[in-house]
Every structure is written in structure tokens, then in C-alpha cells.
Amino acid sequence: MTKTVGAVLVSVRDALRKGGIEDPAAEARILVGGLLGLDRTGLLTRDGDFLSEEDEERIKAAVDRRLQGEPPHRILGMRSFFGLDLTLNPHTLEPRPDTEILVETVLDILAERRKEPLSVLDLGTGTGAICLALLSTLPAARGTGVDLAAGALDAARRNAVTNGLGDRFETVESNWFDHVSGRFDVIVSNPPYIATAIIASLDREVREHDPLLALDGGPDGLDAYRILATDAAEHLAPGGLLAVEIGYDQNAAVKALFEKNGWIFRVERKDFGGNDRVLVFERPMDKQ
Q1: Is 39 annotated as a binding residue?
Q2: At which of 47, 75, 103 does a domain end?
Q3: What DSSP element (H or E) covers 29?
Q4: Which of 75, 104, 135 is the last residue of a domain?
Q5: 248 is known to lie in a ligand binding site
Q6: Which helix (H) or strand (E) holds 266?
Q7: Residue 259: enclosing H or E segment and its boundaries?
Q8: Do 34 and 50 belong together in one domain?
Q9: Whether 124 and 205 share a structural domain
């Protein structure tokens, strides 16, 4: 006889706890709810519903994958970001809540310009998370997502269409600015910023499941910022902004790189853990 939703939720929680998962109750809700298409309320209201044998098998397989180190949202193939449901694939970084701070910071700066037909360039777009989140709040804006991984661009285009933004979003396969043309009002990026030697020591969930292309920032983790600091101004319109996510210990180094290239520092933001996370710069005066 098959089990009820409630009984399966309990058994999944217990299995995850025994497997050493840090927050087994939360992850049980993510996995069971995600696989059954139920939010937290749905899990409660349908607590006594019986599952099909097929659903039980899918949940069992998901638990097995989780216990082998695969992150729950990778198993589901989906992650929520800034109110958008985003498809993941092996070529995309899994967007984290801290990156929403970059989106919020840019929107705060653009508070008086939200209805303007702004153009947004997202470098290393991955799932399209940052650009699509901005487009979802800027109704007249258009966005371009750039990535070197064709598979990531496939996911970004799919996510744009799924979230009703496909007509305002395009993609370019490019190594940073190599195939990018034109000027934009806003450039955003969550670039690879992990120092190469550190990658092997990252949590298993990150080092084994996030793409290396989205993690490896070179010997000191600053390779991408050097490119942005030297080349981005040529692709910004007068008055344009550039916003980047940074590693927790990179604030001073990244600021120095941009200021060396004439950029004007605008604002910084910390993440939910109190670490430096976002820097925003204005286009250099000599590029106006």
C-alpha cells in the first residue's frame, strides 16, 4: 500500500537526517514539494493524500541523489530567484539568494528611471537570473545575456520565455565582450571569482555540481574583474552603471582595479551574512 504525503515527508526527513543533511526538514519539504508540485501550504492541506507508486519511486530516487551530495534544486532542475522560476542545467550556476541583493541594489539606483526603455547587459548570464529579474521589474527595459557556454544560453532563453520575458531578452555566445556590440545603460555580472587553488576545498555541492567555468576566477580570483574594469566602459552609455557581485574578501581589491581604470565608485552592499557582496560603479568620466 502506498504512503500518504505526510508519511513520505516524515520518512524523507528522517533519511536526510541520518545522512547528515544539515536542515533535513527544510530539504524534505523542498524535495517532496518540488516533485509533487506542492508548496508549503499544499503539503499541509494534502497531508493525508496517498501517493502513487510512481511518485514514491521518484521521491526515493531523489533522496538517494541527495544523500550522494547532489543539491536539492539540482535534483529538481529548478530554482526560484526574485519571484521567477528558473530552469537549471549542468552549464548553469545555481542562483543563490545573496545574488538577489545585486538586483535590488540596481533597482534602488534606478528608482526614478524604472519606466524608461533601458538596456541591460548581463555578462556570464547562466540561467539569466540577474537580467530576467531586472526585466521583470523594469517593464520597458530590454536585456542581453552573454555567456561562453551554449548550454547556459539555452537555459536562459527557456527561462525568459517561461517567465513571459522572451520578447525583451536575447542572448549572445561570447567570451566576455568579444562578440558584444553597442552600448547599454546597465551592465551587471556575477562573474567567476573563486581563486583556482581554492576550488578543490569548496563544499562538495558546489565543486561537483556548479560548472567550473562559473567558479574559476584565475590565480587570485580577480581575472574577470580585470576584464570588466578595462573593457566595460566602451559598452556603457553616458551615465551608465556597472554592478558586480564579489567574494566576501574582495572589496578592496576590486575597488582598486576599477578606480585604477577611472571608474567612479557609487555604492556597496553586504549579503545576508554580513559579508561584502555587491559593488556598483559609474562610467569613467573620460569615457563620457
Answers
A1: no
A2: 75
A3: helix 24-36
A4: 75
A5: no
A6: strand 264-270
A7: helix 251-260
A8: yes
A9: yes
The number of beta carbons lying within 10 Å of the beta carbon of residue 16 is 22
User: Is residue 225 marked as binding?
Assistant: no
Residue 20 marked in a binding site:
no
The answer to the question of whether 139 is labelled as a binding residue is no
Residue 92 domain boundaries = 78-287
Q: What is the amino acid identity at position 219?
A: P
190 and 99 in contact (C-beta within 8 Å)? yes
Could you read off the pLDDT tens digit of each residue along the chain, which spans 288 residues?
579 999 999 999 999 999 999 999 999 999 999 999 999 999 999 999 999 999 999 999 999 999 999 999 999 999 999 999 999 999 999 999 999 999 999 999 999 999 999 999 999 999 999 999 999 999 999 999 999 999 999 999 999 999 999 999 999 999 999 999 999 999 999 999 999 999 999 998 999 999 999 999 999 999 999 999 999 999 999 889 999 999 999 999 999 999 999 999 999 999 999 999 999 999 876 555
**128 has binding-site annotation:** yes
Q: Is 176 annotated as a binding residue?
A: yes
Q: Is 126 annotated as a binding residue?
A: yes
Q: Are residues 93 and 54 in the same domain?
A: no
| Residue 124 annotated as part of some ligand binding site | yes
- CATH number for the domain including 120? 3.40.50.150
Q: State the total domains in the chain.
A: 2
Task: Find out whether 137 is annotated in a ligand binding site.
Answer: no
